[in-house]
């Protein structure tokens, strides 16, 4: 049994307090969304519950279209990111490229540049390509992910070269080796990065707001902001219900894959 430590007790209390302060707005949103407007300010344990706020919020704006747009957008980005990152990471690890270290340094440089800094240049490029106000226009600037290349490169470097050499002796092609050896062994990394990418692009707001004009391509974050605009009046019950509907898919995904998520990044850090 460990001896009592006052400093450890204070640290644990501080951690729990910080977690409570972080989670408090979520609890308030859940309370407001599940109760009628007449009892929202009382915080009574015996207040009646209702799901009418969720129904009203869903009917007040085209959230079905917003969710479909966001799902298609996120899937498009994640699939393209994983394909491009897989090919780039494999080339950096297994091909004898001149200046491979310099190329990798340039890729890592992207991690130090905020995407918001590039909004003007991206807007001009997307406009020149005729992709403004399209899902492809929203997704295109995110197809190449330096973070994904970094994670997969570190993972591919840890895979023994003898496995690839044995496959080459058997007549396997590069793509067969990549598909049957590298990708299966890196599956936890793919899951972890996919969760990070889905979370980021599901919540992305500024770039979709700038590049879209119509409901047909707006993601759920932009739709939620327009839904809560002051011109329509502040209805906290509907706003809270809409916000919870927006974050629920991400919460479910994280709860399902949280173990793979944590373990994958721990392994990537060790490598």
Automatic annotation (TrEMBL):
The chain crosses the membrane at residues 9-34, 72-93, 100-123, 135-152, 181-202, 236-257. Its main location: membrane. Keywords: Cell inner membrane, Cell membrane, Membrane, Sugar transport, Transmembrane, Transmembrane helix, Transport. It is a multi-pass membrane protein. One of its GO terms (biological process) is transmembrane transport. GO terms for cellular component: plasma membrane. Pfam families: BPD_transp_1. Residues 67-257 form the ABC transmembrane type-1 domain. InterPro entries: MetI-like (IPR000515), MetI-like_sf (IPR035906). Belongs to the binding-protein-dependent transport system permease family. This is ABC-type sugar transport system, permease component. It comes from Rahnella aquatilis (strain ATCC 33071 / DSM 4594 / JCM 1683 / NBRC 105701 / NCIMB 13365 / CIP 78.65).
């Amino acid at each position: 049994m460990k001896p009592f430590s006052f400093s450890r007790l204070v640290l644990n209390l501080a951690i729990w307090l910080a977690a409570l302060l972080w989670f408090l707005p979520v609890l308030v949103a859940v309370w407001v969304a599940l109760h009628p407007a007449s009892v929202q300010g009382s915080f009574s344990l015996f207040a009646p519950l209702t799901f009418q706020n969720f129904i009203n919020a869903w009917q007040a704006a085209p959230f079905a279209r917003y969710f479909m747009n966001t799902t298609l957008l996120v899937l498009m980005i994640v699939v393209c990111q994983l394909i491009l990152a897989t090919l780039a990471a494999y080339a950096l690890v297994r091909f004898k490229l001149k200046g491979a270290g310099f190329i990798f340094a340039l890729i890592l440089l992207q991690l130090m540049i905020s995407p918001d800094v590039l909004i003007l240049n991206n807007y001009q490029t997307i406009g020149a390509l005729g992709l403004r106000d399209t899902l492809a226009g929203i997704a295109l600037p995110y197809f190449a992910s330096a973070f994904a290349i970094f994670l997969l490169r570190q993972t591919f470097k840890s895979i023994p070269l003898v496995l690839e050499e044995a496959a080459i002796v058997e007549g396997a092609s590069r793509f067969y080796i990549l598909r049957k050896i590298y990708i299966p062994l890196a599956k936890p990394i793919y899951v972890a990065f996919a969760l990070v990418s889905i979370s980021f692009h599901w919540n992305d707001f500024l770039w979709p707001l700038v590049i879209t004009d119509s409901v047909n391509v707006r993601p759920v974050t932009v739709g939620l902001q327009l839904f809560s605009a002051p011109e329509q009046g502040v209805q906290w019950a509907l706003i809270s219900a809409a916000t919870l509907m927006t974050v629920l898919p991400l919460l479910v995904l994280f709860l399902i894959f949280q173990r793979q998520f944590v373990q994958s990044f721990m392994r990537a850090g060790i490598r």
